[in-house]
Amino acid sequence: MMDFALLIAKWYRLNKRKLPWRETKNPYFIWLSEIILQQTRIEQGTEYYKKFITHYPTIQDLASAKEIDVLNDWQGLGYYRRARNLHFSAKLIVNELDGIFPSTYSEIIQLKGVGKYTAAAIASFAYNEETAVVDGNVYRFLSRLFDIHTAIDSGPGQREFQSLADRLIIDSDPATHNQAMMEIGSLICSPQPKCNECPVQQKCLGFENGTIADLPVKTKKLKIRKRYFHFFIFSEGKKTIIEHRTKKDIWQNMYQFPLAETMNEDDPVLFDLNNQTQQSAPIKHILSHQHIFATFHHIDGLPDEIKKDWVIINRSNIQDYPLPRVIDRYLEKTSNK
Ligand code: SF4
After folding, report:
1. pLDDT tens-digit profile of 232-266?
2. For the chain, where are the E strands, in sequence order?
3. What is the pLDDT averaged over residues 324-330?
4. Alpha-carbon dihedral 174, 178, 183, 189, rounded to 10 degrees
5. Which of 79, 176, 312, 326 is least crowded, fewest Cβ atoms below 10 Å from its Cβ?
6. Do residues 204 and 143 lie in contact, with contact meaning Cβ atoms separated by under 8 Å?
């Protein structure tokens, strides 16, 4: 496999995108970039990466930050559990590991929010450990290159692809090799592959056998849950109400306008809407396992009863609170922020 590794490494050196986390071997920075890039596009992730290394240049800075500030800096990226895990792990590393970032795959994978892919990426990029990364791009690339029809989302498939990737990385420069595999999967062996520009086209069994369009194979269809959220924007002068989410879920510790959820699209909203003045069209917000349809109801005046987790704030200060992305989108759209 030596010449395969050399071919892709050469291609990578000539064609790689210049990304800020590729300029460093600092494991803390690489960890930040990997967590930010989970479920986030590179363009958007780059801005957040720069913000985080500026606001928290060391792991000690992140560990000593308040959670609300970290969540605020994360605002707009969604999937807030990632930010909470970063903050939790930074505190753990500072308090229990003398502030020294773990240096092997088996230690890194113990960190909260770090799975096999992320641990392999950090261990290889920062410490050059010979651990092969297999992300969505690598699955696609390998399945076509070796014409493998085992489902990539099945247990046997994951083991087969991991063991293949583990063999390919042997005797290479692990950091370059892993980045090259992912970069070719992303830029060349993309869903619509650019086989004419592929450095390993001559070795590609999928290309030879005409099976590229069928690969990779997947079994499971994701079950999407539909949810109908109704947010209430009360206004009295400059005042409005936000609610602190204490429930253990993806939006824990964030703030939102008071919310009622209905089971179906047309269910009545059980809330006193006598003074309602305006209702938005539903905004569709897509998460990996659920589609949220959010309707915003504007109501004149504040309610008589202020519930336990509600906070009355000055409307213009709303950006001081971490908000779910769907609310942020609505405020951006209506320029009320
Ligand atoms: Fe992917 Fe085409 Fe290259 Fe095969 S030849 S690895 S299908 S880009």
Report:
1. 999 999 999 999 988 777 788 889 999 988 888 77
2. 225-235, 239-244, 255-256, 259-262, 276-279, 283-286, 290-300, 310-314
3. 90
4. 120
5. 312
6. no
pLDDT in tens, 262-309: 888 777 776 655 666 778 888 898 887 789 999 999 988 888 888 888
Pull the structure tokens for residue 263: 């089971």
CA distance 39 to 37: 6
| Cα 216 to Cα 150: distance, rounded to the nearest angstrom | 8
Residue 268 tokens, joined: 């009545």
Query: Alpha-carbon distance 139 to 181, whole Å?
Result: 10
Please give the Cα distance from 299 to 301 (Å, whole number).
6
Ligand 1 centroid to Cα of residue 144, in Å, is 6
322 in contact with ligand 1, CB cutoff 6 A = no
Q: Select from 204, 211, 215 the residue to mutate for testing ligand 1; criterion: most ligand atoms less than 8 Å from CB.
A: 204
DSSP 8-state assignment for residue 263: S
pTM of the model as a whole: 0.74
How big is the chain, counted in residues?
337
